Amino acid sequence: MQSDRKLMSGDEAVALAARDGHVRLGTGYPGTPSTEILEAFSELDGQAQWSPNEKVALEVAIGAAFAGARAICTMKHVGLNVAADPLFTVAYTGVQGALVIVSADDPGMSSSQNEQDNRRYAVAAGVPMLEPADSQEAYDFTLLAIEISERWQIPVLLRMTTRVCHSCTVVCPRGEAAPPPEPHFERDVTHRVMIPAYARPAHRRLREKLAAIARWNDAEGPNWTIEGTGGRGIVTSGISYMHVREAAPEARVLKLGMTYPLPLGTMREFARQSDGTIVVEEGDPYLADAALAAGLAVETQPAMFRFGELNVDRVRRILGGDVSPEAAPPPGKPPELCPGCPHRTVFTALRDLGCIVAGDIGCYTLGVLPPFNALDTCVCMGAGITVGLGLRQVLPPDEARRVVSVIGDSTFLHSGITGLVEAVYNPPATGHLTIILDNGTTAMTGMQEHPGTGRSLDHGRAGKVIFEDLVESLGMARPVAMDPTVDPAGFQSLVAEALESGAIRVIVARRDCLLATSKIKSYEQALKQEACLAPVE
Amino acid sequence: MPPSNKVVNVVIAGLGGQGALKASDIVAGAAFRCGLDVKKSEIHGMSQRGGSVTSDIRFGAEVFSPMVPPGEADFLVVLAPSEVENNRWQLRPGGTLIPPDVVDENTLRGKKSLNVALLGVLSALLDLPEKEWLAAIRGNLPEKLHDMNLNAFHKGREAAARWRP
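The joint structure predicted for all components is written out below.
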């Protein structure tokens, strides 16, 4: 048994590679299944920080990479929608150091509102993409992403999926890489200031880089062929490769590690030597479409397999052309708001008042389920406030007056503030009520800190955004903050009164998440002790 | 040690908070310590909120997919009575179900250690040396919980000796 053999998740492997690869700064926003990367990086003494949202996280990482440092930015798939604005232009500017962007996709939606396939982003923005299939590759490809990013001065997308992020597999780390030069600033406005005059040549430069990377990928990219016993060839990538190897151990397989820009020459040669070629992939027909567009005669998998995760059984079906209906596994017990969760009181009040509730992303989305049935919309981070405003703008007054927005504390800081600005700027005639469900943590993703907790990612002391001050600063009445569980009837009256007022109102329903209470207490105690031990200046 | 090409498939099922994921860490740890290829897969996130949780562990000479294919589990360890029927489909024909009542909870020093007690039952049916199990239990739990859980593990092994699947 090798002594340096470790069993770790894909997320932990990315963190270890970031440490071994001398990543100077890790930024991100918590999101299943990406959250553990920065937590593990911090545990390894890396500088890791939660940003209020993914756009901010990516921009901070871009700044670090402009200064010549190695930076990693982590998020779940829908987070990249938020960060798409900087993504598309940092592809033009390029970077001085290294910039690795981790997109953790969630096929099958184990904990997400959609199953978008972010491989499309690599194509749309023009950034090279690596797709690891297990923890070893998550480790290797993170280091490779740093190498590619520095060699071509381009951001690199590390596209993972739930089963790569959260599965534990064996990793043999390579040890520390050679350290990069210290960060320093070099003025280079044609590469850093994207006014049209500089952006036009920057776009051409990007396409030239991608063409060079495509040639490299064909010649020596992280792709390989398993000859098997010949016959029909299978082109695949990521976790699908693992299912393929098990479903068809004898098959000829082309396993792609860098899936943008694609090694089309390698794919063509593979198809030429195979007796027919089929593409097996999870999610969108991304590889299949690209292969067909390049004139490769590949078979594509039946449309029914675009939905949900793949597994060994589904890959057997794909290879066997079996499109008979799939049996759904018996349903288990669905998740629910924890017994004693403070959100329960809020949703009981909203249900009893007959509110139309525009909801948001977090544990409290579970307010949609019985016995509450008290959530009517959920689209994306921040949409609780803004969709509520839209409903208010057009509904007849008697219905409009029943509309309430609910949004969690972390989600409010992520994307809710601009919604309140909208409420001040374009107030509906009936007013509006937003309830910030402040449970003192980012509960859904596993209790991460955020700018409203006053503690940093590693639970050290940090600046604290006070919701009441922030709301008041927008010119709204100072919100009432109360623990709804102390006086449920009083809370319900407060909501009813705010709805009656016809004004733009915010209520802060504040009580720590039950699961986080003891942790929060211990963090605060540690900080207090630290403060006592600090030398007096 | 299992024969070279045979992958052992274990599924652990329970409700959020019962320690199904911790139990799967221990199984994976024990197999890993034997020098085997190991993969463990589970879903985090929504499942933490009291809902059904399952975790797959696979080990052998070489493991590809991290997920136990439907209907191919050799062992199904279930921590909650309510989770037995909805997970039975995961077992292969002839596979072994280890239901929660194999171990009498009242003989344990803490209800929280039922997960490890059921691993004691599982360990009696697998070819992994006991010392690797014990090391994996110690490696995955804080020291103050070692005694309670090592005791539970032995209770599970005793129960296995009396139990006929």
